Every structure is written in C-alpha cells, then in structure tokens.
C-alpha cells in the first residue's frame, strides 16, 4: 500500500520518509541467512524529482534513508545551496592560489603604478578565469537521475539527424542513457554529454560545465600571454635603478612572472586551443580520444557547422538542472 507522507518522520528501523511529496511502500521482511532485513520503497519522477503528474504505474522507487545496496541520487557529491560539490572539489583551491600568486607578483612587482590599462586587463582576465573555474566545480554538469533495477529495461534505438543511435542501459544507475551520456566512476552518476572527469579539479566536465571549463583555459591563456609578454618587455628595457632594492625586486618579479607564464603556457595554451577545437567540431573529449585511437569513425551526427557548433557549446542555453533540494539526498 502506498501512503502519502509529506510531513511524517522516519526512524532508523524503517518507516515514513521525511522528504516532502514522497510516497513510501513497505515490503515484507526477507530472511537471508541471518537477521531479518526490511526494505522501503517510494516513488519519484526521474525528470521532475517528485511524483506530481506522473502515472502511478510508472513512478520509480527511492529511499530517504539508505538501505543496503541502494544508490544515492547525487552519487559521491553533495548539494550545498544550489552548488553541486564533489568530494575532490577542494582540489581547485590549489589552482586558485597559484593563479592569484602569479597575478599578484606581476601586478605588484612588474607593472608601473601609472599603467592603468594593464591593471584593468589583468584584473578582468583573472576575474573571468576564476569565475569560470568556480562554475566548473560547482555547477551541476548534467546529472541524470538514477532508477531502481528493472530486468525488463532494455537498450533503445533513437534517430539522431536521420541516423540510428543506440541508447544503452547503465548497469549502475539502471537508466536508458541519452546519446553521448556516460557513467562517471569517480562521481558515481550518469552525466549528459559526458566529456571527461577532471582529476585536477575533481569534477565532471559535461553538457552544463563544458563552457566554463573551456572558458577557464581560454581566459587563463590570454592572461598568461599578457603577463609573459609584458614581463619580457620589462626585462628587455634598460633599468637605471637596477642596483637599488626596488630595481632588483622588479627584475626578480619580472623573471618569476616570465618563468611562471612560460611553464603555465605549456599546459594551458594547448588545452585552450583543444577546447575551442572540440567546440567547433561539437566533439566531447571522450569522442575525440576514441577517434584518435581509431575506435570509432568521425561522428557527423551532431555537426551543424563550425560557428554554430562553437556558439552552441559556449553560449547556447544551459538547460535546467534535474537536481533539487528534495531529491539530492534520496537513494534508489
């Protein structure tokens, strides 16, 4: 019997879930060579996160407290206000610290006090890069809500631009995944238009975070180019105050800025060009890697022209997150 439970509490031994709008179903206890085990089930819509306007026979099971073998909707991540925080999301703090340190050394030691335009350019580029970095690790990448196991659920074939594409069933999330979606084994959830899991930032790059991740590299590349060129100009210009303390500090700051920008450029510049290329081709990194290894043929199913692809990936609609405060902590 399904009992609506919008306000009843739940205890550790089973009972009524605490989440508003949930429906709870108590199954008979099962004896499995040991203590009796009870399981509780409820229903939610995988698209809306609640049972409203969803046929009774199609409602899917979920738990508000974790039973044995259940899967958490948000995997190994957590919802903080409107931000999806992964367990390794704090890794990005190191990137922020290094970036700010280089910018501060450059601005305090290299730039003349009256060179206002340089301060403005560096401040704008650094701010844009940091915003993109923060968005990359806090925005929902496009998490697909899991479903309970169903042995009758089978792969499906859909048409994409007139070509048949197979939608596979995820063995972990038990959903029929949309095309280009994959299960992230680090975050433990399926992600729409999965690009890759970034171990440095500790977050997934996918449909809703691709633009921020790529934007971080583009803005950082422009920033280090400006810092490197401006530092080189300072080193090449004769300095009559070189024997003074201030002159030696400016020289040291210019050398540090030039070396730091050079080392960072070896990593950031290729990645910036790579993510512009991926956007123009409408590839994900996963698809690009499979193509380069010969595991698949060039996929033109999603190609709509270079400019249209680019603006769609970087400036197109972000889409609505499926994760809400009501379903983030549920188990299925």
Q: What does this protein look like?
A:
It is found in: Membrane. This is Palmitoyltransferase. With 332 residues, the chain is an alpha+beta fold. It has 2 domains: 1-70, no CATH class; 80-141 and 205-315. It contains 6 helices and 14 strands. The protein has helices spanning 92-109, 116-138, 210-236, 245-281, 285-292, 306-315; strands spanning 3-5, 22-26, 30-31, 36-37, 40-43, 78-80, 83-85, 143-144, 156-160, 163-167, 182-184, 189-191, 196-198, 203-205. It has a 3-stranded antiparallel β-sheet, with no helix packed on it. The protein has a 3-stranded antiparallel β-sheet with strand order 8-12-11, with no helix packed on it. Helix 4 crosses helix 6. The two termini are 18 Å apart. Residues 1-65 have low confidence and may be disordered.
Question: What is the strand and helix layout of this fold?
Answer:
Blueprint (H helix, E strand, L loop, with lengths): L2 E3 L16 E5 L3 E2 L4 E2 L2 E4 L34 E3 L2 E3 L6 H18 L6 H23 L4 E2 L11 E5 L2 E5 L14 E3 L4 E3 L4 E3 L4 E3 L4 H27 L8 H37 L3 H8 L13 H10 L17
Helix pairs in contact: 1-2, 1-4, 2-3, 3-4, 4-6
Subcellular location: Membrane
GO molecular function: protein-cysteine S-palmitoyltransferase activity
Main location: membrane
Features:
332 residues; alpha+beta; 2 domains; three-stranded antiparallel beta sheet; 6 helices; elongated
